[in-house]
Amino acid sequence: MTGPLRPDTLPSDSPRPDYARTNGWDGPHSRYSGASAPTYVGPVSFSQREIVEDAEALKLRRPDVAIVGAPFDDAVSHRPGARFGPRAIRQAYYNHGEHSLQLDIMPFHELDVVDAGDADIVPASLHRGHAMIFRKVLEVASSGAIPIILGGDHSITWPSASAVAQVRAPGSIGVVHFDAHADTADQDWGVLAGHGTPMRRLIESGAVKGRNFVQVGLRGYWPPPDVFEWMRTQGLRWHLMREIEERGAEAVIDDAIAEALDGPEAIYLSLDIDVIDPGMAPGTGTPEPGGMLTREILRAVRRIVGRVELAGMDIVEVSPPYDHAEVTAMAAHRAALECISALAVKKRAGQPVRFEGYAVRSAASHTADVAPVSS
Ligand SMILES: [Mn+2]
Q1: What letter would DSSP give residue 220?
Q2: Which of 10, 46, 306, 355 is geometrically suited to a Cys-Cys bond with 342, CB 3.0 to 4.6 A?
């Protein structure tokens, strides 16, 4: 090795320099890309999973799980910013999730998980945004993959859960909804598609029956009593934060599972990150003090997904501009990863994960009593 060449050592008629050779950069090196690269390198996808956006490609590939971004916050009532949620959640990790210590499984070895990209969103149109989210989730769910939708404000649950209900059958799914707020208002300042209303739209449309809609973590000062009266008439069941304080999260979650499955065979999980205390998840639009612990939510996700058939999941209301040190985005990313890991345990045990339609599911139901995933 001769050391770096200096310009004044090069005669004007010299051949092209070879800096790789002269600087020692021509030696052998291993190459990394995709999921083998460090987490901060390369294009952003969920845990650096392969991006498969095309509907036909999804059908051919038949993944177990597909991540969908819903970068939409035109329906918020207070702080905006959840449109930046999907990107923040996708990259809020420092390893790819190779090994779930809590469940002792290598989730991406057991399951094929792809990132299906984002719904086709433009700003300033509630109607178009919801239409595009519906279409994207419908494409993913129609492929048989379990969709995990990253919001976005909570209004995206209306099109997302509608799409899942349409693929499976209206009224065939129960919903477990974690939130500080019920989101069952009739309207937000005259807007029927606000982020305070999606659960009412889902029930009114018949996509989900009120009696199989279960809410966990409600607290604070909204909605008013007449909204709870409507919820009673629909048979909704809800568990206030006070009940979690008194009985513990585990007992409440077990009740919620039983209530949501009182009829349906599968559950759609909707996780509003504001169910977590804003001290642990400050990056959200309508923070309400006095919420659940991050670890309680992660355990709840493992417990629910391990015990029931999962139809789909959304994780919403992460607003990165209000976040600190990515703490909220990390909680959301891990909630998705806990869901994936619990699905992986099921697949290892021979239980179905993908939705193959009713014929396939009833044939597979004989194996459905494999021991539930321990949380
Ligand atoms: Mn909400």
Answers
A1: S
A2: 306
Residue 141 Cα, ligand 1 centroid: separation in angstroms?
Answer: 22
Give me ligand 1 centre to Cα 181, in Å. 6
Centroid of ligand 1 to alpha carbon of 308 (angstroms)? 23
Distance 198 CA to ligand 1 centre (A): 9
Give distance in angstroms: CA of 161 to centre of ligand 1: 14
- CA-based nearest residue to 23, from 41, 37, 2: 2
Give helix then strand counts, H and E, for the chain. 13, 8
The span from the first CA to the last CA of the chain, in angstroms, equals 58
pLDDT at 41 over 50: yes
pTM: 0.92
How many A from CA of 53 to the centre of ligand 1?
Answer: 27
Rounded to the nearest whole angstrom, what is the distance from the C-alpha of residue 235 to the centroid of ligand 1?
Answer: 19
pLDDT digits (tens, 9 = 90+) for 199-243: 999 999 999 999 999 999 999 999 999 999 999 999 999 999 999
For the chain, what percentages of helix, strand and coil (3-state, to nearest 5) are there?
A: 40, 15, 45
Cα(327)–Cα(92) distance, rounded to whole angstroms? Answer: 8
CA of 25 to the centre of ligand 1 (A): 53
* Spacing, Cα 192 to ligand 1 middle (Å): 15
**What domains can you pick out in the chain, each with its CATH number?**
36-354 (3.40.800.10)
Average pLDDT over residues 271-282: 98
Using alpha carbons, select from 276, 354, 311 the residue that is nearest to residue 113.
354
